[in-house]
Write a structure and sequence with these properties.
With 448 residues, the protein is an alpha/beta fold. It contains ten helices and 20 strands.
Length: 448
């Protein structure tokens, strides 16, 4: 198979508010949150109490089913609060950060490590949670040997962080991470160009992907490199967390720091910040004017989570997107084709005649309608999805809870993020990603 793959399907969404390639400031907030909801498939058990002192890398949560899988604190400090919801569900552990950070020392790697030594260090440091297991998108099971490990070294999502800018100077750490993961399974790294800084990594098979979004999605890349079949397992890890894994093996520290892109149409001076996962969105007040009039998303606009001003940056996220809430009514919007400030991939408005399809658009959150029955054929949804599946039939199988057809139409190959563009294109306004996630939850329940 060629290592140069060109995808003909896809769609780049010209969202306004691209972050400038500059770090605006470094943020170490007063409080950082560890959120169990970030880790799908983890049945969290609390390991700390309010008032406990922790170091960066100290365990905070453990998986009840597999106690070796830990989630650790990204900062040193004191456990300020354990936040619980309905029926005492654990929502977050808030850690008040020290002014000067102290790290738990796991010891830098010396010599050539074995597979078991690599696995042991990753488990004890909490960086095992960096591995997402497919199918189902859950935290990887250390008892399972994957077919391969996949890393996407770029993202094509709207306003995504530029990995060449954020991690180009982290090549030694990334190489150390790749070399460590190669002890566990074969590593595949996907880059956007043969000239990429990450195209020269050793101990991995490098693939060049060219095309529009979702070319940067690791699920799309897996489908073209090594499709997942029933009873097969692969792991994925983000490039930012791969760098953290490399720092663990080179310095012995659990260092989660990363550059995060803050952008979007409602952003005041979109740029990058140097920070940690779990920071409160209140630390980003300088990037927006009125919290009541905007939607603050941890992640990208297609797959991110609406956290609001009181939320926190997700463990896996490297961007924050700020949009204006689309609350203003639009009189006879359906009958107004001459809307030059609206975007339509289907040429529903005449602005495409003026060559404005690639012009950045200040989109808001207005859906311009509500959910209704699917009315378009599968070919409409598949035209921007570069995977060998039938998305509409898969969605309908998930709605019906039909496990046989879910398997037949590709439930093992996808996560909700892979069909985010299908949701964006859907004229019926259905929440496709939620439907897919419900299907995955049913598979986990029935196939356990």
């Amino acid at each position: 198979m060629s290592n140069n793959i060109v995808l003909k399907k896809g769609l780049n969404i010209p969202l306004a508010g691209v972050p400038a390639l500059a770090v605006k400031r470094t943020i170490l907030p007063d409080t950082v949150a560890v959120q169990p909801s970030d880790f799908k498939g983890l049945n969290a058990r609390l390991l700390v109490r309010e008032g406990d002192k922790v170091l960066a890398g100290s365990p905070v949560l453990a998986d009840k089913k597999n106690p070796d899988v830990l989630v650790t604190s990204p900062v040193s400090g004191t456990v300020k609060e354990v936040v619980r919801g309905d029926k005492r569900k654990l929502l977050a552990v808030l850690v008040k950060a020290d002014g000067e950070q102290e790290y738990l020392d796991f010891g830098a790697a010396k010599g050539d490590l074995t597979c078991e030594e690599v696995k042991d260090k990753l488990l004890k440091s909490g960086l095992w949670a960096a591995f997402v297991q497919r199918p189902y998108g859950i935290v990887a099971d250390p008892a399972v040997t994957p077919k391969a490990i996949f890393v996407s070294a770029f993202s094509t999502a709207p306003l995504a962080a530029d990995t060449e800018f954020t991690l180009g100077n982290e090549l030694p750490a990334i190489q150390a991470g790749v070399s460590a993961l190669a002890k566990l399974a074969k590593v595949h790294v996907s880059v956007k160009s043969a000239d990429s800084a990450f195209a020269k990594l050793n101990d991995a098979e490098v693939h060049v992907f060219k095309g529009k979004h979702p070319a940067g999605n690791v699920g799309v890349q897996i489908s073209h490199i090594c499709p997942i079949r029933k009873d097969e397992t692969v792991w994925t890890v983000s490039l930012a967390l791969l760098a953290a894994i490399g720092r663990l093996f080179t310095t012995g520290r659990c260092d989660f720091r990363r550059k995060v892109a803050v952008g979007g149409p409602a952003t005041n001076g979109p740029a990058y910040i140097d920070t940690l996962p779990g920071i409160p969105m209140t630390a980003l007040k300088e990037f927006y004017v009125d919290a009541d009039g905007v939607r603050i998303i941890s992640g990208d606009v297609l797959t991110g989570r609406n956290t609001g001003e009181n939320g926190y940056l997700g463990f896996y996220d490297t961007q924050v997107t700020i949009l204006k809430e689309g609350t203003e009514p639009e009189l006879l919007g359906w009958a107004r084709p001459f809307r030059f400030n609206q975007y339509s991939a289907d040429h529903s408005y005449f602005n495409w005649c003026l060559g404005r399809l690639d012009k950045e658009v200040a989109m808001d959150t207005n859906l311009h309608g509500g959910p209704r029955a699917f009315v378009m054929p599968d070919s409409y949804y598949a035209k921007h999805l570069p995977m060998d599946i039938y998305p509409l039939y898969l969605v309908k199988a998930c709605l019906a809870g039909d496990i046989d057809n879910m398997e037949k139409f590709g439930i093992y190959e996808v996560l909700p993020e892979d069909l985010a563009l299908v949701e964006f294109m859907d004229p019926s306004k259905n929440y496709v990603q939620d439907i897919i996630q419900n299907g995955i939850d049913l598979m986990l329940k029935e196939m356990a």
